[in-house]
Design brief:
8 helices, mainly alpha
């Protein structure tokens, strides 16, 4: 006796991604774009601000660090920054640029996300630690926003994805 298929799905329907599958694959993209643009902007804002990269003065990195020193969770981090506030300011600005750019283009996505998480953690423990209630401080929120990207990297629409495909193709050529 011949078996007759009674289902209405094509034989390889599981190979065609559903809208839900597609949405799931792209779910981190808006977060990546937001964090990448935000960190790029933060780095550029620091570098182009006339008063930020100063040891003293209103809005300067030095004055900001001195103002938060006694209320921070880790005053030793602030003391370290105060040894050379301008150098620290440039370091943070260039780190934010690297993290933002790496996140946006998806190059070394997990490493960029770890960098963003570490910047956010250090800012939470120093600058916004005394913010009450705690959820008003944006650095903790940024830290939590980096966690999914630390875990997943930049799997879609990224330089990492392009490089991964190239590596797989090359590995297939040498078998």
């Amino acid at each position: 006796m011949t078996q007759v298929r009674t289902d209405t799905q094509p034989m390889h329907a599981d190979l065609i991604p559903s809208r839900r599958d597609t949405a799931g694959r792209f779910a981190l993209l808006p977060l990546r774009i937001f964090l990448g643009v935000t960190f790029l902007y933060a780095g550029l804002d620091k570098l182009t601000s006339s008063g930020f990269m100063q040891d003293t003065g209103p809005g300067s990195i030095g004055e900001t660090m001195r103002a938060v020193r006694d209320s921070s969770a880790v005053p030793a981090l602030v003391d370290l920054a105060l040894k050379n506030p301008v150098g620290f300011g440039y370091g943070i600005a260039f780190a934010e640029l690297a993290v933002g750019l790496g996140t946006l283009i998806g190059l070394l996505g997990r490493l960029a996300a770890v960098g963003g998480a570490l910047i956010s953690l250090s800012l939470w423990l120093t600058v916004s630690w005394a913010t009450t209630p705690y959820y008003y401080g944006n650095d903790l929120i940024y830290l939590m926003a980096w966690v999914p990207l630390v875990l997943a990297g930049a799997p879609m629409l990224s330089a990492d994805a392009v490089l991964r495909v190239r590596r797989r193709r090359r590995a297939g050529e040498y078998r």
